[in-house]
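From the pipeline queue, job 12 of 40. The input is one protein chain; the requested action is below.

Action: predict structure.
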Amino acid sequence: MNERIYIRKVLKQTSIRLNKKLGQTFLIDDGIAEKIVESAHIKKDDVCLEIGAGFGVLTQKIARRAKKVIAVEIDRRIFEILKKRLKCSQNLTLLNDDILKLGLEEIFQKYGKVKIVSNLPYSITTPVIAYLIRNREFIDGCILTMQKEVAERLVARPGTKAYGVLTVKVKYFIETHPLFYIPKDRFLPSPEVDSATVNLEFLDKPRISVICEDLFFKVIDLSFQQRRKMLKNCIFISKKDASQLPIDLRRRGETLSVEEFAKLANGLTKIGITSL
């Protein structure tokens, strides 16, 4: 059955009202779903994790390729429908849980590293990316579909409007490869923005060396709190200390590359400033 027809029928029969706070919008294009799963290059011995399984359009296709699929869906009502729809899938474990509260280490200990293939709920895209970074040692590949604007932030260049905290922190840990855009009318209900599928490649070690990661991240956060201000108005240190830094604090944070943020943080550490 056509996914659009199926989801409309289920919603009508069950009188389920979708929760905007959960960012619920479901992929209804079978061809796009196939394209997303193909992009993951799933092998027969792969263990895959899907975040926000919804009504199972991706789940079914992943399960046909992978050794094991762990699909997480937070909405209890949709979870029950998903269980009935996919009851014949022998290699599938469904979890009615919040991914942000789920320990990937526990899954890793049982199955080994997981490959992430997901159409992310819009409301948790940024928290999920942060969650995946924290759990990167348990991840072997990551294909995510998200809002187009967030995908653009991940690959933005210094000095552009999209460049910000998320860009810099992601670049520190991840090589991001945009794959393709998806029009908003391929989802139900149709969101206000288009989506994009991206490949997140976790680096074996951070892109650059920093002496103190906590200070590095603090510098990034402070630099973008008021992005149009010069760094000297975001990072409060003496003129003497500022003169010893490798980065001119008259610049704005939005103009610094991830490498320059590392130089700035390392420079602060070397002159004895370890917290801001």
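Job complete. The domain at 3-202 is CATH 3.40.50.150 (Rossmann fold).
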